[in-house]
Amino acid sequence: MSSRMSGAIPGPISEPKWVRLLLLSVALGFMVLFLVLPLAAVFTEALRKGWEAYWQAVTHPDAWAAIRLTLITAMVAVPLNLVFGVAAAWAIAKYEFKGKSFLITLVDLPFSVSPVVAGLIYVLVFGAQGWLGPWLAEHDIKIIFAVPGIILATIFVTFPFIARELIPLMQAQGNDEEQAAVVLGASGWQTFWYVTLPNVKWGLIYGVILCNARAMGEFGAVSVVSGHIRGQTNTMPLQVEILYNEYESVAAFAVASLLALLALVTLVIKTVAHWRMEREMKALAELPRE
Predict the structure, then answer these.
(1) Dihedral, CA of residue 129, residue 135, residue 138 and residue 143, to nearest 10
(2) Which pLDDT tens digit goes with each residue over 168-178?
(3) Which residues 6+ apart lie within 8 Å of 112 measured at CB?
(4) Closest alpha carbon to 156 in 108, 87, 102, 196
């Protein structure tokens, strides 16, 4: 008697072996074509003239200035987004208030706005002909075509990452532990530090990693506000573009290889953090709820 006639629940459907092999081959083929081969091409071109040429390219004063500016931008943007992301996620996940939907929309805004448009917005506000341009010029404050403009543009395009990782995690955890801590006499800071933060640490690390990766690799918004001043306002992506346009392909790929190495390191750390976060969320979902 068939399972339908007997009322039994059918077992899991297993695809034929050739279907599984076909899907696996297509997936691996795409990974090789769009991930492995481009990475191999970057490192091959970077080392095409040997290690000496590679070393000279990455230690050139302009390249070193671009590396330093990229790291400075990330070191400023990521901590600021960390504070905003934690505060926004805590407010959205733990409280009900008027304007909550509007705050969520603001958090998602950089995902829907082109980075180039974001850069143009800062030019409109802080540029020489912008709304605040004359006042800034009178007080000798430079934002556009200077480091502050690069940092502001980077903050704008990266601030959703941390908040968007923490919001679903905090919503899944609920408020029970925080309320218990408050009943036992814990202050708001103690509740956050000893209860909330340990529960979201891996999601927080995951969000910080994504935010840092985007901050170091951002091109569109930074390109608009930087002015492309050699040795001053060029980040690593902008330096790669300039070198490539000047037909210095080895130097361009050498700097690009540093970005690729940073991306690979970020990928490894992200994978570990994501795995730990999934384990903690699975363990949380299996806890009995009264």
Answers:
(1) -70
(2) 888 888 888 88
(3) none
(4) 108
